[in-house]
């Protein structure tokens, strides 16, 4: 009896210690972790409140900025949920799928596979994409497994004790005062409205952005990376296989898809069809279909640059249009008819058009920097450029090129200011004129 009492006291002591540690960690987390702008925090809280989820979406920002469950719910008359998150790797998608499937009979899963995410092995060395998700998962063996297998022992403590990542702020009264001001309000405490500048959380995992390109002509100061020979990394393949196995073992239908991006980006990549072929090869024999909405025919989905908030993400208007088109295509008896066979075919069957331009510093030698203009066009041969600059602290504009075909120009390497490029397909008349502005 005495031994039993001794063991019971020890067990009680351990329980009390764990409870106190948990409480202290919770208080410290509240004081030093600024997650007042986190979308994942409210997304997961809302997911846990869902008694049923018929259709689940997984993926990175291309998922949660592109699919609006409110639109789908009305069309499909089902309960859909978007469990996307920023930089969500395939391991995060797998553990979120398990989390959502614990007490819910999910009927269908749509897995968004953005080429930049599934192609990066090195992204698995960074814990930030994991923390975005794990910080808001409820305590469970699933969360522990995620932290251990994706972060390992090096990041386990930081994953379990969130305040450890910001412990130095405990000694900054100004920081803590600011945190308390932002957290002690109804929106935060009740997991309600979250907004960041000109976008906001719109419910069920979807983020609506008011950002929009000023025109259908986009620009960039650098080129986009081409598709690599290993477009789907070894780590991504491992977890995509786990996702497929999880779904198929439970009778859940799974579909892979890619959300649309501006043609400006895809044309500059130059070999986007390579990614499509590699994804289809990876899925051969797995009984999983893949639809790339970058190949969608205009009669099913017709977007332009103003439907995007940047060179890869849809804005709210574009997302609602895409969601409706997605629902329609997925409801077709033969969805394949909505797509071109390749991106190359899409461009061949599309009219001549100027999508944008890239103005990149290609060389600096001594005190001179050389800039190269790359037009992003389809079926266009002749292009003329008018280029001017305005140096910082200079009120005057200086003409560098007056509607010529020459794509190269130089500027002083130690000078800062703005470059203005006017591009036209007609030398005489200069109509239409596309404009772009760059810092230098």
TrEMBL record:
Keywords: Membrane, Transmembrane, Transmembrane helix. This is SGNH/GDSL hydrolase family protein. It comes from the Bacteria. The chain crosses the membrane at residues 12-32.
